[in-house]
Specification:
about 140 residues; four-stranded antiparallel β-sheet
Length: about 140
């Protein structure tokens, strides 16, 4: 990715509620490949999820998956990341990041060679247990 390129978040950002519906279990974020054809090296993107009380950082390619072909180039058009917030879903996490109903959270994506992108969202009130919600 060229210096100065920008990661663009493709809406919507989705969250999955925990089994009891009190917290967010996963956050799913999709980013669009820059229109200039620059490649996103997802292995070099550092993702941080934070609240006013805590934060968790994610690196590496294992959580990213490519979506769509780039018009015959073989390059993906989008990359999607499903971010686990509970250690039970990803034992490599140092602990659970609890984001409750109506709580504000941030997802920051920092590529080493591009402009960072931050999205701010609020967890839905009245989440149905285990269901996905657009935020």
């Amino acid at each position: 990715m060229a210096l100065g390129a920008v990661i663009q978040v493709a809406e919507p950002v989705m969250v999955q509620a925990s089994a009891d519906g009190e917290y967010i279990r996963y956050i799913a974020v999709m980013v669009r490949v820059p229109r200039d054809g620059a490649y996103i090296d997802v292995e070099r993107v550092v993702v941080t999820v934070s609240t006013a009380e805590s934060m968790q950082t994610y690196t590496g390619t294992t959580r990213w998956r490519p979506i769509g072909g780039g018009g015959g180039t073989g390059m993906p058009v989008f990359w999607q990341m499903q971010i686990p917030l509970f250690q039970a879903d990803d034992p490599t996490l140092p602990g659970d990041l609890l984001i409750g109903q109506n709580q504000r959270f941030f997802v920051e994506m920092k590529p080493l060679d591009a402009v960072p992108c931050t999205v701010e969202r609020t967890a839905p009130a009245g989440m149905s247990p285990g269901s996905w919600h657009e935020v």
